Structures are given as C-alpha cells and as structure tokens.
Amino acid sequence: MDGGGGGGGVGEELTAQETALYDRQIRVWGVDAQRRLSKSHVLVSGMTGSTVEFCKNIVLAGVGSLTLMDDRPVTENAIQANFLIPPDETKWEEGSIAKLCCDSLKEFNPMVYVSVEKGKGENALQSFKLCLRNQTERSDPSSFEEEFFDKFDAVVVSCCSLATKKEINNKCRRRPKRIAFYTVDCRGSCGEIFADLQNYAYVQEVIALPWRNLPRKVAKLYFAMRVIENFEESAGRKPGEISHSDLPNVLALQKQVCEAQSFNDSFIPASLLERLLMAGTEEYPPVCAILGGILGQEVIKGLSGKGDPFKNFFFFDTTDGKGVIEDITPATPPN
Amino acid sequence: MASERQMRAPKGAKVLMVGAGGIGCELLKTLALSGFDDIHVIDMDTIEVSNLNRQFLFRQSHVGQSKAKVARDAVLRFRPHINITSYHANVKDTKFNVDFFKQFKVVLNGLDNLDARRHVNRLCLAAEVPLIESGTTGFLGQVTVHVKGKTECYECQPKPTPKTYPVCTITSTPSKFVHCIVWAKELLFAKLFGNKDQDNDLNVRSTNSDSSVQPIEDVFERKSDEDCEQYVRKIYDHVFGYNIEVALANEETWKNRNKPRPIHIKDVLPQKLCEQNGNLEDRRVDSSMVSAMSSLGLKNPQEIWSLRDNTRVFLESLMLFIDKREKDVGNLVFDKDDQLAVEFVTAAANIRASSFGIPLHSLFEAKGMAGNIVHAVATTNAIIAGLIVIEAIKVLQNDSCNYRMTYCVEHPLRKMLLMPVEPFEPNKSCYVCSETPLLLEVDIHKSRLKDFVEKIVKRKLGMNCPLIMHGSNLIYEEGDDLEDDIAANYASNVEKLLAELPSPITSGTMLTVEDLQQELSCNINVKHREDFDEEKEPDRMVLSGWSPTSSKKDVEVTTNGGSTAPEATSNDKHANDIEVARAESGDSVGNKRKLSEISVQTPPQANDGITSKEMPAEVLENDDEDDVVMLDGGWQIGKKKKLT
Ligand SMILES: [Zn+2]
C-alpha cells in the first residue's frame, strides 16, 4: 500500500498534473494541506450509502490511499443508496461489495490508490462463499491485530454493532501513532457521525456517560440512537435488522433506560423511535449525501491539519432539517 | 414503512435541472438514487480538467464533451431504467420558453452565474413552477425555495453586482494587489494584445494640466527595424518607469499616500535576456504551448517570484506573444486558461505592486484573482445537492409549511453546521415578482437609448430580449424576425438621445420594458437629472425603487454595537467581497428571529456555485466562543469582528 498509485506522496512539490486537477480545492485549503492529504491512508469498513458518498469525496479530494472492507455479496438491498455498483446481477458474482466499489472508485481519480482488504484468516474465495451462505454476515477489522491499524491515519466504520465499534476504537487508541476513528450511520431519514481524534472521548466512554451529565438540549436523536443500538445488541440483531413490530419492546427498553437515568420516559419522542425502527436498513440517499459530505470534510480537516474538526457528534434529521454538532465528552461538567 | 416511503419522490414527476457542473453532478446522482425517474438537464458547458476534482461523473477522457450528456450517461449506468433528457444548450436559448418550463413540477438550479439565475427565476415565475436555487463557495453553501406568491423570488433582494473599482485607483493609486491585477489585465494586457479601437485609460490622468500630455501612442508601436527585446524593454520602461514618474509629478495625489517608486529595466535587468540565457531560442513552436515560465525554467506556480524574475517573465511573455502568437495579437481578451496571458498579467501586476509597495503574489494566486476563479470542493456540493433533493420532495408533496432555506456553514453556528431558516415572504416592492414601478434618474439630453438598453435594461434588469414602449409607441425591440424597415427604425432610435426620440422621453415619462421570453414586464418612471458623481455613478444613470424588505435598524440591533458594515478590506486573497446586505427577522421554529446576514459575493464567471449569496454573518468570523452572546429565544448572535 505504501507509495501506491504514485499518489503525490513522493516529491515535496505537487506535480503539474496534481496542481491542475486540484486547482479549485487548493484555493480552499492550500498546497500544504493538499500535500498532507495525498500522503494519508484511510480505511473504510462497511460499504453503505453514507460511506460510498464519503469514499467518493475523499478519492476526489486526493487522499494517498483508500482501503475498503466489506465481504458481503452484492444484493439489491445492499446497493439501494450505492451509485458505485450497477444493478446488473451478472456482475454481482464477480466479487464482494468492497471489490465492486473499489473497481468503480479507482476510475474517479487515477492518482489515488484504492484497494480491498479481506476479512482476516480466510482467503478471498472462502470469505466470499461464507458470506454468500450467510447473506449479511461480514468480517470487520475488529478481528485484526492492533498493528494492522498502524497502516492508517483514519478509520471509518459504518453499519456494525456497538461492540465492534468499541473494539476497533480501542485498538486505534492503543497505537502509538494517532489514528482518527469515525463512525457514520444512516437510519432512514436520520443520520449520526461520531469522531474520535484521540484527544477527547472513546466510544465506550461516551456511551457510558450518565445522561444527566450531558450538556442541556442535546439532540434527541442522540438518545434515540442509543436506545435502538441497545435494543439491537440485547436482541442479538444486526444493525438495522429491526422493524415496526419491535416497537413495543423498544418502548419498554426506552422506559427502562430512562428510569435508570432518572429521566421521564417521554423524554425521547416515541415517534422518533418509531421512525428509526421503520427505516430498518433503509438509507435515505439525500441523507447519505449529507453525511458523506460532512464526514468527508471532517476527515480532510483531520488529515490535512487545516481547519478545526468538530467535537464529537454530528446529527442530521430530515424532519427539522438541522445538522447539529454535539459535544458529548466525559469532561463536560453537568449543565 | 409509510413515513419513510413518503419521502421517496413521487414516480413520474418531471423535473428540470439547470446546470450539470459541481452541484449538478451531485444532484443528478442523488435525484436518481432517491427515485426521481424523469429528469431533464440543461448545460451549455463542456468538461474541463479543473472540473474533475469534484464533478465526479466526468473522467479525463470526457474533457471537451458536453457536461449534460456525459452526466446523463454516467447516471444511467447505475440507474438504467429512469429517463434522463440532456440538452447541451444555453438555458437562455429561446427554445426554453415559458411553455417549456410549464411541463415541470419543479426546477432545480445548480448554476454558476447571476445572469442565468435571474433568467430562470423569471421563467419559473411566469410558468408558475417552483424553483429551488443553490450555490456553494468553498465550505459555504445555501439552498433556497422560491414559490410564486408564497416565498420571495430569487430577485426579491437586490444582488450585489460584480465589484468595480474607481478608475483612478486602478490607473494611479492602487493600494491592494487586486488593483494591480485589474490594471495588468484590463489596461495593459488590453492595450498590448486587445482590440486597438477600444478606449484605454492606461496613459490618462497623469497630471492636472492634461493639455501638456504628449501623445505617446507611438511607444506601443514597434518600429519596423526595432529589435524585439529592445522594444519590450522600452515598453517596460514606459509603463513601470515613465508613467510612474509622470504620476509622481502630481504632488497633490501623494500628500496622504506613500509615493510609488519608478522601476527601470536597466536597474533590474541590465543585461538582455538573450545575452544571459542562450537556450531562449529553443522555444516551442506550438502556439498553445508557449510559456515564459517553461522557457525560463520556472516551475512552481505557488512560488512568489522576485522582482527580477517577474521582470524576466514580463519580457519573455511579451516577446513570446509577439513571436509566437502574432495572429492572436490585436484581438485577445484575457482568458484564465491561456497560460501565457496569465504569466504576463502575473508579472505585470507584481512589478506594479513592487512599485507601490504592495506585497507580491504567486502565479497561482494571481490567476485566481484575474480569472475570478471560484473555490470549490466536492463535499459542499454533495451536501447542498442532498438538501436540494429534500426540498424538491417537499415541493412535490406541496408541503409548503415545511419549506426551508438552508445554510451550510464552515464553523458551527448555534451548534449547527446545516442551518434551516423559514423562507422569506415576497418583497412587495420587487419589480420582478410584483408590479412596483422603478425610478430612473438620467440626463435625457446626454444619454442615448443605446445606453439605456445596454446598461439598464440588459445589465441591471437582466433582460435578454427586450422590448421598450413609451405609452403605446414601440420605441425599441430585439429579435431575429423583425421586418427590415422596422429594424432600421430601431437602429436609428438607439443612437438618439432620450430627449430626441420620435416620441421624446421627458422627466415624468413612464416607460414599459418587457421581455417576452421571460414574460416579465416592468414600468420605469423617468426623472431628469444633470449632476452625476463620475466615480460612483459612471453610467450617469441611477435605477432605484427596488428596495430590500428589511430596515437597517435590524443590523444595528443584532450586531450589538459592532460595525454595521464590516468591509472586507484585506480579503484580497480570496477575491471575494463581503458586505452587509440585509438583516432579517424570522426563525425556523417560532416567529421571533434575529439573523444578521452578510452577502458573500463571488464573481459572475465563477465556476460552480453562486454569483451572490447570503450567509449568516458569523460564518466568516473566527470561531471565538467568547464573542458569542445569548439573546432572547436562545439565539446566539456573534459580535461583529473585523473580517481581516
Ligand atoms: Zn421578487
């Protein structure tokens, strides 16, 4: 992966070709930021509508390399918000979602090295066949040794369980180099981004925070996402493997969680939980575009050292149209 | 799944996209993914290399092809069963008339210039089709919804026109690098390589005893036996040495200013280029490839050249124009994609800047200023396209109470990066969407009908194909199908002074101006006036009566005692102009809102996004939390700080 694709990482000055291609964005963030960007390596696990948008954005921007992980086979549902894979079933057998996305992304910018990382311990074919049998099961980088993450400057995960998020986040954190960690999830018309640039909070620290210690007026979506996540984990569901019929159980869980936190259970609007349940695995494409755009900007800021990355959650809900930043860290004093 | 499914676009809704560039590519993709299945796309442009970093539907191999067509083909690859109709054409073309617009449920703009935006606004009003307008610059962007009778139209708020500079600032007293760029591009470049018949202020206003100025035109004429390098050195001495000395003679000018320093070629470069550098004869033959930088071995466009290097580039680029681009000389207009022209303008601007003690700039920066290049990134376009689709679906569902205009900001504002605001009501004094008459102050004995047509009707009112009536008399009309005698009559009218037309215009005359394509008609009351400020009112015509809805008072309230008009004096780097355009009250939640806004103006030639757009005032300030105060209703209003 090192030095792959001749991604401008070698010389100190950008080539004439790079200057011509990146002219308009160099006018936004400068040559130095562009140079740092072109020497950065990004890992994306889980090819969802939001991560596909994100990948498009950072490949166009000219990161050094992009590594994709998602061993799932292509299904109609898996590409509902994916513009990288044509709806041609004969092509779907050629490889995993990551492989087909990779083939398409490579064309976006010949100066960026895009590759696929397979799940650990299995060769490609085995892995792929395993997935074919087990439709949505997929390997994720949580099973890799910590050293694996040293290759990357930023790791983005989508559509995986809370446990997996925690594990990957912890592995990134334990490395001597700074590896920025992000999660992005779109549930229907709602979306969430979490960022850990190793200077504030781990996923697990954040999740463990008592609600009363959070800043006032935190977006309701934050709490609703935690309840849904909690439900999926306790019911043994995969992300998004939920439906409207789960509503009674989710409302019961919400009541239980709110009581434990000494909050009134009307605190989280039932209608919001209902919307998230009904969304299931569906991703609303305009929301994917927004999440992929915001996350792209954040990762570019983090990698290029230009601009202030946000701290540490972003929420978008189509219903009110707000794109909100929430600072949810253990350091936050009550109120 | 009902509520989520509802957000899918109704099948079969025919929508029109105008523009297949930065926003357009993202928009076409997101529309297709969101279930839109009958999309029409108009774009007159072809693909360029500098588009490829964000217009992701295009590849290197598509350079030179129609954006609309390539975008269509690319989207059909991942959504083959939808209908996309592409038009490689100008939206101002007469075939896109009101009837054409009427077939659409909503029109989505992803345009790059004010002219086309105003044109589409008028057609949408005439066809009564909702319009969703958008724009981006760097990390900033906005989406607005315009529905006739319900929300303001695109032109309800006057748009800042492109920045112009007083002539004497450019010719005599530059204080910023951009003034030097304008001088190099509009005066020197035009003088040397443009049409010889054009007016040119390069040598004017040197002294107050102007009768003593000798005709020095001959300096620019190369004598038949004159050595080329000798000639270009003479030009150098004339414009950077002699002209500055002449200006210095006028002591009054320099009383409160730093005096410029004349620069002579013998002091900077005593030796001729051909004596220092033998390989100069090895210039490329292909005229499109000639470059002073490459023949001088300068490689880095980001580097700021010394005065000496700028001088070498100046001489070399001028000689290359004479030697290798002989055919072009005499009819060139500055083009940002003409490498040699950019090199010449950069060098000339830097030498002048050096003379006036203004910091020098790299070719990259100079090119941005001279070419009015917009700053653009893929991410903002993607976000804006997502927001357009969300609004488009509301429009299709007629969900008018939930229409929002949304600002995309770089630094969180009241915790928000995406900030929805309720749309404003129509401006009752808007000449485009209401029938309010305008007032024109003009010297009817000095202005010609031609001036009125060009400077007011076309430039200010944005009409494309105008018709002018005085009472029931038609005094002017444009179109291809006019009878010869009528066309001759109009041709004679345009040359006449307003007071001398067959039906003379006097103070108190009401004119009706119409554009049949835009189906826009407005009345103009004429008032005779003789005195005009040469610098501020160079057209000698002032059009008014089209006022913003808000009062200045709001600005003062919301800015909390700070400057009400923060002028971006040192924003040259981005070549944008920032000014307070209006203050509005309104909130996306309740009725109470206080939101001071400024306008970020980008040049009309800009690539992606916008000609003018309004952004929340705080956007461009440093994100200093201490400066944010809480007002009633929980709205945080930042104090204005100097935008430096
Ligand atoms: Zn209007």
TrEMBL record, chain A:
Might you name a Gene Ontology BP term for this protein?
A: protein sumoylation
Q: Name one GO cellular component term.
A: SUMO activating enzyme complex
Annotated THIF-type NAD/FAD binding fold domain residues: 22-321
> Cross-referenced InterPro entries, in alphabetical order?
ThiF/MoeB/HesA, ThiF_NAD_FAD-bd, Ubiquitin-activating_enz
Pfam families named among the record's database cross-references: ThiF (PF00899)
Task: Supply the name of the protein.
Answer: THIF-type NAD/FAD binding fold domain-containing protein
Which residues lie in coiled coils?
Answer: none
Q: Which GO terms describe its molecular function?
A: SUMO activating enzyme activity
Q: What PANTHER family does its record include?
A: SUMO-ACTIVATING ENZYME SUBUNIT 1, UBIQUITIN-ACTIVATING ENZYME E1
TrEMBL record, chain B:
Ranges where the record places region Disordered? 531-613
Q: Localized where?
A: Nucleus
The THIF-type NAD/FAD binding fold domain covers 7-431
Q: Quote the cellular component terms of the Gene Ontology held in the record.
A: cytoplasm; SUMO activating enzyme complex
Q: Where is the active site?
A: 168 (glycyl thioester intermediate)
- Composition-biased stretches (Polar residues): 557-569, 598-610
Instruction: Give the pathway.
Output: Protein modification; protein sumoylation
Per its record, what are the GO molecular function terms? ATP binding; metal ion binding; SUMO activating enzyme activity; transferase activity
Q: Which GO terms describe its biological process?
A: protein sumoylation
Matching SUPFAM superfamilies: Activating enzymes of the ubiquitin-like proteins
The UniProt record gives the binding positions of Zn(2+) as 153, 156, 430, 433
InterPro entries named in the record: ThiF/MoeB/HesA (IPR045886), ThiF_NAD_FAD-bd (IPR000594), UAE_UbL_dom (IPR028077), Ub-E1_IAD_1 (IPR042449), Ub_act_enz_dom_a_sf (IPR023318), Uba2 (IPR030661), UBA_E1_SCCH (IPR019572), Ubiquitin-activating_enz (IPR035985)
Keyword annotations of the record? ATP-binding, Metal-binding, Nucleotide-binding, Nucleus, Transferase, Ubl conjugation pathway, Zinc
User: What residues does the Ubiquitin/SUMO-activating enzyme ubiquitin-like domain cover?
Assistant: 440-532
Residues that coordinate or bind ATP: 19-24, 43, 51-54, 67, 112-117
Could you tell me which residue ranges the Ubiquitin-activating enzyme SCCH domain spans? 324-367
| Ranges of biased composition (kind: Basic and acidic residues) | 570-585
As for family, the record states: Belongs to the ubiquitin-activating E1 family.
Q: How does it assemble?
A: Heterodimer.
Its protein name is: SUMO-activating enzyme subunit
